[in-house]
């Protein structure tokens, strides 16, 4: 191909033409609270391209608002519906079919700062040991003791047959009733 044909082909394909103009702040009217120093003014020399860009922007704006509205409406509908939750006993049976909440087979008693937590954590490393999640205070607090053994058992973790359930409290020796 001759160089003149290549040059003529380059002239046929024109990139989109954008007119970009920067206006300094001094050329604009002052607007209260406007922190910008310059404004970018973009002019499109092709009206069809400008129409296409505006159409795409409007459609994307519409879809964004539509998605926000639908998600808000959906969350309102789910919050107003009554959720029928299965009883806790049936739920625990479904999650742990062979496990049950048992009264502890061992209770670690001590005084504060004597290492009851460290002992419990070391014993819990064994796979056949389950521990209560917190201090239950069943024997040293009358309000918990009056709730009965069934309440105490429900504070224990699920354990399988053969596992040892352990509960600890450093408070059992600090109450006045200890000497009794």
Automatic annotation (TrEMBL):
GO MF, any single term: [heparan sulfate]-glucosamine 3-sulfotransferase activity
Chain positions recorded as 3'-phosphoadenylyl sulfate binding sites: 113-117
Pfam families cross-referenced by the UniProt entry: Sulfotransfer_1
Coiled-coil annotated spans: none
Protein name: Sulfotransfer 1 domain containing protein
Ranges for domain Sulfotransferase: 104-171
Origin superkingdom: Eukaryota
Record keywords, A-Z: Glycoprotein, Membrane, Transferase, Transmembrane, Transmembrane helix
Organism field: Asbolus verrucosus
Residues passing through the membrane, by range: 49-69
UniProt xrefs under InterPro entries: NST/OST, P-loop_NTPase, Sulfotransferase_dom
Catalytic residues identified in the record: 113
């Amino acid at each position: 191909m001759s160089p003149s044909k290549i040059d003529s082909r380059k002239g046929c394909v024109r990139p989109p033409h954008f007119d970009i103009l920067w206006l300094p702040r001094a050329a604009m009217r002052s607007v209260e609270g406007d922190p910008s120093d310059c404004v970018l003014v973009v002019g499109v020399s092709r009206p069809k391209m400008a129409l296409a860009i505006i159409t795409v922007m409007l459609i994307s704006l519409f879809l964004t608002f539509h998605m926000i509205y639908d998600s808000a409406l959906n969350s309102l509908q789910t919050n107003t519906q009554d959720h029928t939750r299965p009883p806790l006993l049936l739920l625990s049976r479904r999650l742990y079919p062979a496990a049950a909440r048992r009264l502890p087979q061992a209770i670690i008693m001590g005084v504060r700062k004597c290492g009851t937590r460290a002992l419990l954590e070391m014993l819990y490393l064994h796979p056949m040991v389950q521990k209560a999640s917190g201090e239950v205070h069943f024997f040293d607090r009358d309000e918990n003791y009056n709730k009965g053994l069934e309440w105490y058992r429900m504070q224990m973790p699920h354990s399988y047959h053969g596992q040892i359930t352990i509960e600890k409290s450093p408070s059992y020796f600090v109450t006045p009733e200890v000497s009794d």
